[in-house]
Amino acid sequence: MIVTPAAPEHREGWLALRAALWGDEAGNPVDLPEGDGNFVALEEGRVVGFAEAAVRQDYVNGCDNSPVLFLEGLFVDPGHRRGGGAAALVAAVADWGRAQGCLEFASDAEIDNLDSHAMHLALGFAETERVVYFRREL
Question: Which of 54, 61, 66 is nearest to 102 (CA)?
Answer without folding.
Answer: 66
